[in-house]
Amino acid sequence: MTMLNPTSGAVRLLSRAAEHGVTVCFANPGTTELALTAAFDAETRVRPVLCSFEGVCSGAADGYGRMLDRPALTLTHLGPGFANALANLHNARRADSPVINLIGDHTSTHLKYDTPLTSDIAALANTVSRYVGTITHADDAAPQLDAAMAATRQAQSRVATLIFPADFQQQSAAAPAPLVAADTPMRGEVYLDHLGSVVPALRDGTRAVLLLHPRAACAEGTRLAGEIAQATGCDVAYGATPARCERGRSHYAIARVPYFPEPARAYLDGFRHVILVGARPPVTYFGYEGQDSELVSAERLQPFASVEDDLLAALRALHEAVGAVNGSAVPSAPAAPVPNALAARICERVAALLPQDAIVTIEGSTFGGPFQAYSAAAAPHSELALPGGAIGMGLPCALGAAVACPDRKVVALQSDGSAMYTLQALWTMAREQADVVVIIAANRRYQILQTELARIGDLADMPVSAAMTQLQAPHLDWCGIAQASGVAAYRVDAADAFDRAFKTCLTTRGPTLIEVLC
Amino acid sequence: MTMLNPTSGAVRLLSRAAEHGVTVCFANPGTTELALTAAFDAETRVRPVLCSFEGVCSGAADGYGRMLDRPALTLTHLGPGFANALANLHNARRADSPVINLIGDHTSTHLKYDTPLTSDIAALANTVSRYVGTITHADDAAPQLDAAMAATRQAQSRVATLIFPADFQQQSAAAPAPLVAADTPMRGEVYLDHLGSVVPALRDGTRAVLLLHPRAACAEGTRLAGEIAQATGCDVAYGATPARCERGRSHYAIARVPYFPEPARAYLDGFRHVILVGARPPVTYFGYEGQDSELVSAERLQPFASVEDDLLAALRALHEAVGAVNGSAVPSAPAAPVPNALAARICERVAALLPQDAIVTIEGSTFGGPFQAYSAAAAPHSELALPGGAIGMGLPCALGAAVACPDRKVVALQSDGSAMYTLQALWTMAREQADVVVIIAANRRYQILQTELARIGDLADMPVSAAMTQLQAPHLDWCGIAQASGVAAYRVDAADAFDRAFKTCLTTRGPTLIEVLC
Question: Where are the strands (E) in A269-355, listed by range?
Fold first, then answer.
């Protein structure tokens, strides 16, 4: 028996994935994944995309899943390799992205010897996965893949993980039973119970806000919400950072609850009725000494739909109940006046030049905040943000989105501090010729930490801790890093130079990077 | 109450660490670690070393602990940040390196809201830690640090982890009880029971091998083992990859059991008596289809010392029992003839030029194998290898060793594939002006995977999987990456050019990198 066995457990598993419509695997294999590696020559319907760090595999699978709503595979090496994927799997879990992780394990008879690379893989996997399966026989590969697929079809927490010992990858497996068409998961109808109380609240006009679960932020959900707002005068905001939302001048511009607790509370205090459309009661992002985490008192909260509901059906019911008018398109907010700060001016230019149907990934506050001011008036696009909060998402997510949607331009708005965590994504972008423009806000500091430290003291009084927020001495040369990874790069320090560089990047096929000194 | 509170739980914890002799913290903090961050301004006996990725923090703490046998701290942000540190903590656990991890957690009252960054930190920590403590009150900080320190004083598995909610970091804590001098852990004396059977086996001369736990590989252990070998004709080999060993021409050259199962079995089959000095019965690194994992049959194994024993005492007893002679220094093996392959010629030059008391970190087989052939004849030095097998160890470990031993030159022998996992270490090397020469074997492939794939088939028949072992199209420009991180770099493709570059690097204070195209 060789690893090239065309009926090996590894081949059976990839073939089953292909039957389910899986076409991509973001991979960083090792010795215990050799049979799975070799299986890509036998089952060519699933294409491996090599990543040079596992956090790139998982972040790319997250971005891929957000765009196509079906899973990519990841392939990582034992516990330590999988551990490197965990931070972006945390993000995928919070984004409700479908992902299936394949992890090789030692040959089953070898495991008991506790050799150097042995560790508790299942314990790691359980922290991010709805389903963790261990394959215990070659014949078990296809059924376990079916179970993993079923987990990715749920409404929330759609990461599944399979642990696949090397011997069962190699051994022959019987042909699995024919694929059974998957049931569409039942969605609840909790909203029907609440329609009677929510409609009068909405009639209170500007004193009501709909807090939307981001899953409702597709084109139709955005339209329905906008027309409800138009009909009632209510506001609409996301109840959490959206994993993906549709935005731009043909879409109603849904608001965001501010990040820091004081402005978040001030925003929400403006409403008597906070209506939860799949969203949870709003709380602060972090806990702060002397402040409640809960942003809205219980008596002002009105549950409407549950997260397990069909949220579009819920919005349609509400739309009808308040007499909203189909096609009563709400013009997007005009762009805010351009302030002088370079980051804001860059974001204004990105919004102005953004191609139709672009995908924009956003990580970090330097561009993330200002871009919101302009993106409502940009060409229609999809935005992928950071619902899980684990930095290192941006570059891999952009890679995965580009692999998922090769005909759409991807723009990665990125801060320099967070880009460092998974900068290996640049190399895979070059290898795949992924059509991504990376824009790095090179402010050479952890701005969010400086902001948080300044909330409690004067940075001048804290030289040691202030130095821990500075990416200086030396600064990072992002053009150099990009070029060394095979990505063409430009450095700019003014809006007009950015404009020229960005136009060049938009007309270039394949990855490019612009480092903005700001 | 502000975060600058000089009697905060965070300050109390750092002060207690300082009382225990801890002086360094490899840090990548976030918002939930702000009070710990600010505490470095109040307790300046512990110096923070900023890393731009958490795997650098943990790998550096591993290297630091191996050199000084006392812990450095790591500081990481919640579960996802800590997850990025896990692979190198796996290595630290397998290396028996003392490390104390500090992880901030959400404000205790906030945890129940399951906000974006919440995850099961303890589950992650348990996979690598001997001790996991959650601080439940500001007064609890110092006692928990004491418990963590106690865990780092054990013989094996010396990683401890403390989870420290943000509110208890900030709140005032009472002055802790005075530090009690730590008990020296009791070591066992299992070896006394076996002395009577082991001595006759050793008298069997060349048919016996001592398999040493690497913990005995200090200067004295190496001397004792060499003199036992001299007196009896036995061989001495490491029973596992050494976390650290002393090597070079004043030290007896201890052998290594080969990596692949066939040569490993052939080597061990040469001995009737395999005597375990703290080592476990030897097994293959990975399990292979159709091969036993156990390399030596039970009747040939002779347990001598247990891993919990005082291994130096065990060697001294054996030394005396076989009548070994103090000072019967065994000359190290002469250097092997230089083969033509460039990697081997580079290793010969590194060994020839290595300064006295250098520290050499080794990751990857391209340099790792050949260097063993020459390092026995080099100037005396400490070698740090990869007992845990999780790649991404080399660069951070070199950084940590340089921080631990600023007066010793560090040489990092590194493969390109593994360097990618934690390349962010280069930036901290530059920031700290760590005295490290990084030598990258740029063969632009995962050589180990090509070797393993070739064991089972012809790479030409496996174009898809073979492509997954190639770091090509584009290749990585390691000089560019280094320079972009603030590290001076040289590219060479011949031994004489290497020689010149290495001499320049050896006379340069601070980090340098040589990319060897091989």
Answer: 273-277, 301-305
